[in-house]
Amino acid sequence: MRKILLVAAGAVLLASVSARAQEALEAAENLFISPCGEPFTAPRSDPYPVVKWFNGADANHDGKLDIDEMRNDAARFFQVLDRNGDGVIDSQEVDYYEIRVVPQILTPREVGALQARFVPVVMQATHIGPDQPESDPLGIRQGASFYSLFMEPEPVRSADRDFDQKITLKEFLAHSDRHFHALDRDNKGYLTLADLPKTAAEKDAKAHR
């Protein structure tokens, strides 16, 4: 009888541990970084957050994302990044973005490099992503690339094509246009959710859409 009770108690304990593990799994979040650099998260039990971004950018909700909708989405996020409202995203605002908005893309080494010129923000950072492997020839796990549709470790800074440490709205929108044309491989003039490639993070998590 005692043996039966012990087995039953063990089963209850195992079920409890399994339930907590399932809760922890569901509480964990997937990350997607949009073409303009905006992070989107969703619980592991929900569709991969590329869906959240697509549905928000698809302003008329017709299931098709055209170049103007993608530009408007980029322009909206530009205003978020331009913290002082001077019409330019400067290097300090990019640093703020990388440390406070998407800390998952930084390695501890990169945080140390930023700390010298942006100490107040670094000290406020509440989470720094795990270190990335030293050897990654394809760039899959470098910076934002793991969570993005593009091999761009620094999605905002990459819009600075003339390397003057300043990103204007014109540059940001031109970068959005390049992204759209790269994704619109069949020149349809629009993108559907099915047209979008899976990020490495989505594949790694075996997430659904």
Instruction: Name the strands of the widest sheet in spatial order.
Output: 1-2
Q: How far apart are the first and last residues' alpha carbons, in Å? A: 49 Å
Q: Tally the helices: what do you get?
A: 8
Order of helices and strands: HEEHEHEHHHEHEH
Main sheet: strands, sense, barrel: 2 strands, antiparallel
Shape: globular
Mean pLDDT: 81
What's the helix and strand layout?
Blueprint: H1 2-27, E1 29-33, E2 39-43, H2 50-57, E3 65-66, H3 67-81, E4 88-90, H4 91-101, H5 108-115, H6 119-124, E5 166-168, H7 169-183, E6 190-191, H8 200-205
Antiparallel strand pairs: 1-2, 3-6, 4-5
Helix pairs in contact: 3-7
Provide a brief overview of the structure.
With 209 residues, the protein is mostly helical.
What this model shows, in words?
Helix 3 (67-81) runs antiparallel to helix 7 (169-183). A two-stranded antiparallel sheet has the order 1-2. Helices cover 45% and strands 10% of the residues. The protein has a domain at 2-72 and 131-205. With 209 residues, it is mostly helical. The protein contains eight helices and six strands. The protein is globular, with a radius of gyration of 21 Å.
Which key terms come to mind for this protein?
209 residues, mainly alpha, two-stranded antiparallel ribbon, 8 helices, 6 strands, globular, disordered N terminus
